């Protein structure tokens, strides 16, 4: 009986939604999203997105801590929202110092030392979304965090000479693979590690194997041998001699993932290593909640609706993808923010930063306009870096103003409702943006704002594209 009632209710909700949508299409004037509270909160079971690109090489993307993640059961103490936002601030701090420092890496200590140099600016946080790739022959399937803000791909490796944290899948054992080979210190690939990791590589005393070290903003790190191995992207993409880090000393908040897939802009990233195969093009869609899935795919073939804006040069030789943000609209009205506010800080797009960071001169007007539009809902206290929150537990559905980002070249991108608010709980639904402390700190377009968008990185073409409803 109850089920019948709820499916009836569900049916009529759908009808009403359909009606609203068609109204919106006809007049094109709706400046609000009508949001079901349930659409913002993850459920306890995974319901994979059925949408996806029609491409050969496409991996399923899941959130590190959601019910769709295979790594989840390895992590009984999943982080709270406060933990996630604190870790996010560590990543942002290290991005800021990395982009403002004049370069010059630290030194990788010996494998038997416990820490990497905590040189400010030499590290970035590690991100939140996971894909499964194959490594070795025979192939081992490994869950890796994918990160557009760093270049080196690495995974924990046997014999874990110093330390491996607990991971979901068996740890890669090079001695069982027929395609593994070490890189020596005299190989020119070894010296490329400096710019990719921010640390000068070291040399193993007797065997002369190249040793990398990389540290992330949340004080996670990996140290190990630089090696080549066959990488397999399901279902049938094979990349022989893929340069990666075979981690012998690994610690940190990787949530059961085996390591990291580096999709940054620099020399040894996945994008650069597979340039001939995938033409330096990849795209992804991040799901609306942790109980759905998105995708990460390689090679061309984006939807026709994708609109492109040029990458900007953010910092010579950095891993980050610079973009040009020129304005923001809230509820159809362009905020009056001088364009110098955006141009003086510069902007990047990052898959690993959670909350978009705006300069104070842009965040202030955004918050004011959002608060005005939300004035009928009860305000509650903020959480960590989020300062504009509402108790929406009394509402089945509610309205939030539409927000669009304007990029260089006249490209306007409408954010999904899941890209506007960050739902801590029904009692605390917050504006999903935060201000940088310093007006000169780089603006970061983070992964909450990217949710459900089809985002195409055409690295060879020097442009990034945005399409709507790439996944749900
Ligand atoms: C790779 O180098 C390490 C460190 O020198 C060594 O222990 C390991 O046996 C080497 N592996 C292969 C397959 O040569």
From TrEMBL:
Domain Peptidase A1: 129-467
Pfam families, alphabetized: TAXi_C, TAXi_N
Signal sequence extent: 1-23
Ranges annotated as spanning the membrane: none
GO biological process, one term: proteolysis
Keywords: Aspartyl protease, Disulfide bond, Hydrolase, Protease, Signal
UniProt record similarity statement: Belongs to the peptidase A1 family.
Protein name as catalogued: Aspartyl protease family protein
Species assigned in the record: Quillaja saponaria (Soap bark tree)
């Amino acid at each position: 009986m109850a089920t019948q009632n709820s499916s009836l209710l569900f049916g009529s909700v759908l009808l009403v939604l359909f009606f609203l949508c068609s109204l919106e299409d006809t007049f094109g004037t709706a400046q609000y999203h009508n949001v079901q509270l349930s659409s913002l909160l993850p459920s306890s079971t995974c319901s994979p997105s059925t949408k996806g690109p029609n491409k050969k090489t496409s991996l399923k993307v899941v959130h590190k801590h959601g019910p769709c993640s295979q790594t989840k059961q390895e992590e009984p103490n999943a982080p709270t929202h406060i933990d996630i936002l604190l870790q996010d601030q560590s990543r942002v701090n290290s991005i800021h110092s990395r982009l403002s420092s004049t370069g010059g890496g630290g030194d990788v200590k010996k494998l038997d030392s416990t820490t990497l140099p905590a040189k400010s600016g030499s590290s970035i946080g590690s991100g939140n979304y996971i894909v499964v790739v194959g490594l070795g022959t025979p192939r081992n399937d490994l869950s890796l965090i994918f990160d557009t803000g760093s270049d080196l791909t690495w995974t924990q490796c046997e014999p874990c000479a110093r330390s491996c944290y607990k991971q979901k899948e068996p740890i890669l054992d090079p001695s069982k693979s027929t395609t593994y080979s070490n890189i020596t210190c005299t190989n020119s690939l070894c010296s490329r590690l400096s710019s990719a990791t921010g640390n000068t590589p070291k040399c193993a005393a007797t065997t002369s194997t190249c040793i990398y070290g990389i540290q992330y903003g949340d004080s996670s790190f990996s140290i190990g041998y630089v090696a080549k191995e066959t990488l397999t992207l399901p279902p049938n993409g094979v990349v022989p001699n893929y340069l990666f880090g075979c981690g012998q000393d690994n610690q940190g908040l990787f949530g059961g993932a085996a390591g990291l897939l580096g999709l940054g802009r620099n020399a040894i990233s996945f994008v650069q290593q597979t340039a001939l195969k995938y033409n330096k093009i990849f795209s992804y869609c991040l799901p609306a909640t942790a109980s759905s899935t998105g995708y990460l795919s390689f090679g061309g073939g984006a939807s026709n609706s994708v609109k492109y804006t040029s990458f900007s040069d953010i910092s010579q030789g950095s891993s980050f993808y610079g973009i040009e943000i020129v304005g923001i609209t809230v509820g159809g009205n362009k905020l009056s923010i001088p364009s110098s506010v955006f141009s003086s800080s510069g902007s990047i797009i990052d898959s690993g930063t959670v909350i978009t960071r705006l300069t104070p001169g842009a965040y202030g007007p955004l918050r004011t306009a959002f608060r005005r539009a939300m004035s009928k809902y009860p305000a509650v206290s903020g959480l960590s870096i989020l300062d504009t929150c509402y108790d929406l537990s009394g509402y089945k559905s509610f309205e939030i103003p539409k927000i669009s980002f304007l990029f260089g070249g006249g490209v306007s991108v409408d954010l999904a409702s899941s890209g506007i608010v960050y739902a801590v709980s029904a009692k605390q639904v917050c504006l999903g943006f935060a201000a940088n402390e310093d007006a000169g700190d780089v603006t970061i377009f983070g992964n909450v704002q990217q949710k459900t968008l089809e985002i195409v990185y055409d690295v060879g073409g020097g442009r990034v594209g945005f399409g709507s409803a790439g996944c749900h």
